[in-house]
Write a structure and sequence with these properties.
By secondary structure, this protein is mainly α. It has helices at residues 22-25, 53-60, 65-80, 104-119, 126-136, 141-148, 157-174, and strands spanning 34-37, 44-47. Strands 1-2 form a two-stranded antiparallel sheet. Helix 2 packs antiparallel against helix 3 (65-80) and helix 5 packs across helix 6.
């Protein structure tokens, strides 16, 4: 009496390593791949550039260059303040030193981030929350609107984009990139 044949184990499908993973694609689009030579080795490489929210809004004409620059300044301060939750290890370790001490640069950056959020109405205001998550933590506008919103309530997409545009305009004035216009 012949026995049943065992099914062959199927080989796992491998993702294309040259393309972004499914997980990465859900967090935003990429530009078309650009082929060029690696500066160190000279071998051909293929680069894909992730498109950020502020860059897309600038390209679409939704925000001005001054608003884009204000967003970049805020993002730089946010990263310098180490508020993004990304932990790094120290390259130079001192005997008996603790990792709890903040540098003067971090303290100054945190102060400037807090001042910028105060100018937007605080962390719990629509503008402050939107800038914190979209510019600082680099969420998409849609993701912030659905998950965080304002006071825990979801916000519609066009309204969320309007909140971000208004907040970037306020940041541009706060950082001195644009000047207040006086009424004639």
């Amino acid at each position: 009496m012949p026995g049943k044949r065992k099914a062959k184990a199927s080989k796992a499908k491998h993702d294309d390593l040259a393309a972004p993973s499914k997980w990465r694609l859900q967090h935003g689009g990429f530009s078309e791949p650009i082929r060029e030579a690696d500066p160190e080795t000279g071998s051909p490489v293929q680069h894909r550039r992730a498109v950020d929210t502020l860059g897309m809004m600038l390209a679409n004409g939704t925000i001005t260059e001054q608003m884009h620059e204000a967003g970049q300044i805020f993002r730089t301060l946010f990263r310098s303040a180490a508020l993004d939750g990304i932990a790094t290890s120290q390259l130079i370790r001192l005997a008996g030193a603790t990792a709890d001490a903040m540098s003067n640069r971090q303290i100054d950056a945190r102060r400037r981030v807090a001042e910028a959020l105060d100018a937007l109405g605080g962390h719990d205001s629509p503008g402050g929350s939107c800038v914190w998550f979209v510019v600082g933590l680099e969420f998409s506008v849609r993701e912030w609107a659905q998950r965080q919103g304002w006071s825990g309530r979801p916000v519609h997409g066009p309204v969320a984009q309007g909140i971000l545009v208004g907040a970037l305009g306020m940041l541009a004035m706060r950082f001195g990139i644009t000047r207040r216009q006086r009424a004639a």
